[in-house]
Amino acid sequence: MKVTKRLRLAALQMNSTKILEDNLERAVKWISRAAESGADVVALPENFAFMGSDEDRARMAPGQEEKILGILKGIAREQNIILLCGSISVTSTETTDSRPFNTSVLLDRAGNTAGVYHKIHLFDVSLADGVSYRESEYIQPGDKIVTTCIESVTFGMSICYDLRFPALYRALARQGAQVVFVPAAFTLDTGKDHWLPLLQARAIENQFYIIAPAQFGRHDGDRRTFGHSAIVDPWGVVLAQSAEKEGLIYGEFDGEYLDSIRERIPVLQHERPELY
Fold first, then answer.
1. Which one of 65, 73, 135, 160 is the catalytic residue?
2. Domain boundaries of the chain, sorted by first residue
3. Residue in 46, 65, 73, 85 annotated catalytic
4. Is 73 a catalytic residue?
5. Is it true that domain 6-264 has CATH number 3.60.110.10?
6. How far apart are the C-alpha atoms of 106 and 157, rounded to whole Å?
7. Is 160 a catalytic residue?
8. What's the pLDDT tens digit per position in 76-96?
9. pLDDT digits (tens, 9 = 90+) for 170-201
């Protein structure tokens, strides 16, 4: 499907804390500022409302989802924007597992839920500095690949560590994704070497736009995140990248440009999965 639409994209970089009300207040302020600047699409980072330990986030999950999404649905409707609610912890109603999901929610301009994605790949790693993360101890993985069409543009959804799994992004491209969200809280240790190359690789190999709003700086519990939120076009060009501060970056989705790239180098048509 050809797309001729243009959209102004905005990604918000935050340094979220364990104080939910303060995080929400700041997010709403920046969302309003993005809308005033003409943004059609605004994306928040992973754990934008509560940046504590995985254990704390799991403990805080019950009862928070409705409050957080209620506020964001109101601001999406009020500001007439498409809003990617980074990620929040959502208590499971789909399984008997007591662990919540790490969940990203996409809202349309009327504040309606257009897409819900539960993070598929969980961050269970041991880093060179001796720090160990075990997200799966407190978060359960999702099992569905999610794309959704709003205003004739197909959006794909992913979260942070998903970025290291190219098969997910090829599946999103196969489902028609033209813009893919990567809200993140990449660690400083991994982000300084891997964040931008992975974003560019995913954009180039699948020929879609990527909006990657991120956490940055030092958080409660001495966790440090890399930041450098970015918007990348389907040729791999970094349209915008955040400095070391909280704030917004902007880029433009150009459907005609995306179509031209896919026509000139039709990689999806040239695949030979029967040989892989």
1. 160
2. 6-264
3. 46
4. no
5. yes
6. 9
7. yes
8. 999 999 999 999 999 987 778
9. 999 999 999 999 999 999 999 999 999 999 99
